[in-house]
Amino acid sequence: MIQRILVTGGAGFLGSHLCERLVEQGHDVICLDNFFTSQKSNVVHLLSRPNFELIRHDVTLPIHLEVDQIYNLACPAAPGHYQYNPIKTIKTSVMGSINVLGMAKRCGAKVLQASTSEVYGDPEVHPQTEDYRGSVNPIGIRACYDEGKRVAETIFMDYHRANKVDIRIVRIFNTYGPRMHPYDGRVVSNFIRQSLAGDDLTIFGDGSQTRSFCYRDDLIDAIIGMMNNEEGFIGPVNIGNPDEFTIRELAEKVIDLCGKNNQLVTRPLPSDDPTRRRPDISLAKEKLGWQPKVPLADGLKHTIDWFKSIDLSDYRPPTP
Ligand code: NAD
Ligand code: UDP
């Protein structure tokens, strides 16, 4: 059935792909974004579609819309972006959640929160299962994001228990692909940009820390599956690719796929940088019948091709 669907943060990396997929499925899609970490070019190809609408708005402020489903993705996601204005970051998670939940309550809409593996902080449990409560430094430089997302989960659960709002929570692990902001400072975008330019690749710390990288198409499949699961499974559920790599392995892979000969240089490890991260996706497999299909090398190839196709001067660093 055709739904009226709001995607907050819909012009961003994941949001724009989600909007694209939902428009293709024939839904009436409203993309809401303040363009803090994105630009119109991500969704410009959708503007001519009759079932797509773009609204410039800040999710920390209320808005009245009539919708059936809400995907709440609005929030800067890369460390450099979310640390740029940390108070705004936590406001976006907390007030943004209250605003979309209020809308969902008023409209009887279903609402999905894009949470994060960062709720586990620097995890003592490996791989991370959903029942692990995490190890977050509440006063560190990542807290504006991690704690904001943790509070958002709390608010979602309380609206669900107190007001019977139909919610979904997905905990997204590192996801990459075309349309990542090339200057977001995330490891995949930095390494590809550096390698293609013939620069040294910057390894923070000794490069032995690990991450597990999920390709964006797999992620979009999972969150649409989560929103529409028939059993009313609300999560939280881990969504990510359990193939785990050290940052040094990632650097070597990127250099190889770019066909370059870059050197690696080390830089200080930022504080509170998690030492390892890998999702246990048993719950997603059981409840959603989902598991990722795209191996890292294939996803990186698509991403590298996209980086080759863009003009970097079209992208600017975020402004307040
Ligand atoms: P992104 O920065 O590309 O997208 C976020 C979008 O939200 C941007 O378009 C930005 O302009 C918008 N935005 C930020 N603050 C806003 C505000 N106050 N009002 C309205 N719009 C606002 O990042 P992404 O990687 O696409 O992430 C999307 C969501 O998924 C985020 O909530 C993020 O926390 C979550 N997530 C992403 C990853 C990942 O690896 N990509 C991992 C975990 C969680
Ligand atoms: N990282 C790195 N070089 C870079 C950018 C990041 O070594 O140029 C490291 C970073 O310290 C972290 C990992 O790569 O250990 C992933 O960083 P990213 O910012 O992509 O995501 P997050 O830390 O939020 O998982």
From TrEMBL:
Q: Which SUPFAM superfamilies match?
A: NAD(P)-binding Rossmann-fold domains
Domain NAD(P)-binding stretches: 6-302
Q: Which Pfam families match?
A: GDP_Man_Dehyd
Report if keyword NAD is assigned. Answer: yes
Q: What class of enzyme is it?
A: lyase
GO molecular function terms listed in the Swiss-Prot or TrEMBL record: isomerase activity; NAD+ binding; UDP-glucuronate decarboxylase activity
**Main localization category:** cytoplasm
Membrane topology category? Single-pass type II membrane protein
Localization recorded for this chain is: Cytoplasm; Golgi apparatus, Golgi stack membrane
Q: Name one GO biological process term.
A: D-xylose metabolic process
Q: What is its EC number?
A: 4.1.1.35
Q: Which cofactor does it need?
A: NAD(+)
Q: Which UniProt keywords apply?
A: Cytoplasm, Decarboxylase, Golgi apparatus, Isomerase, Lyase, Membrane, NAD, Signal-anchor, Transmembrane, Transmembrane helix
Name of the protein: UDP-glucuronate decarboxylase
Organism listed in the record = Novipirellula artificiosorum
